[in-house]
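dude i think i finally got it to work??
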Amino acid sequence: MRIGILGLGRIGAFHAETLAGLDAVESLVVADPFADAARAVAERFGAQVADSPQALLAAGVDGIVVAAATDAHPGLILAGVEAGVPVFCEKPVARTMREGLEVLKAVRGGGVPVQIGYNRRFDAGFAAARAAVRAGELGTLHTVRCTTLDPAPPPAAYVAASGGIFRDCSVHDFDVLRWVTGREVAEVYAVGGNRGAVHIEAAGDADTTAAVLTLDDGTLAVVSNSRHNGRGYDVRMELHGFRDSLAVGLDDKLPLRSAEPGATFPSGAPHDFFMDRFADAYRAELAAFTEIVAGARPSPCTVEDALEAGWIAEACTLSLHEHRPVTPAEVRRA
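look at this
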């Protein structure tokens, strides 16, 4: 099949490399407002260069991967859907929930599949945790802990366009929490502060946060995030039930050291970047997209799925600013 890639920055170029290595992909067509970026990827992977999204869609592509800036996501998703071409789009669907809802209205019932890029759904550890929960191996859940800690803050330009730490970073935890547990979030209470990134504080954002989420069956979830984790990139989940407990991310590359005398775990070099931690998940995610393009499976992460995680992020953002519990239902009505 022939896949188009729109946007060839860091993640777009990474996706080009992944797609070029998939057996199902015969050729690539690439487009980026910066011609040098498009040419560099084209030369590396033998791709055709298109000078616009419209030209790329007219080049006979079977599916498109949207890795452009967030502001471009709605228009590119809709362009693909209107052309009858399956779309993979990196999260988020749009900068605001209002725009995201407009995209949902436009694509719902249209028959053209759209997959939003929440890669943790394709990580082997998270998938195993989901299977264990669904099989009842842990018994009744009472506590879930989710962690995403970045090794260093993103640059000021990225922060300014990110929508805030809950919408940009924590939203991955919110999505995988829903996916693994099969539950919805009933209420959130979020706190946060700034521990050293001046440009994040200047943008009105927090660089370190914690949120307590009450799920619709009474399970408590704690989501902890920070832009500062000098030891590396730390993504984990713990699930505690009446019968058993399970953890995702406890491998030898865990960026944590033990204070216990004689402890040797973890012994490997710590994960230092999300592309390192989730390389296999990204490959599985795009392999799934090729199956969608081939008509062999439905979207594993729809626009509606992505918006559900977005509502939780909106609730946490409001809770942080107003210092009170907030329900996702409240922000949906706003």
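The chain has a mean pLDDT of 96.
im so relieved honestly
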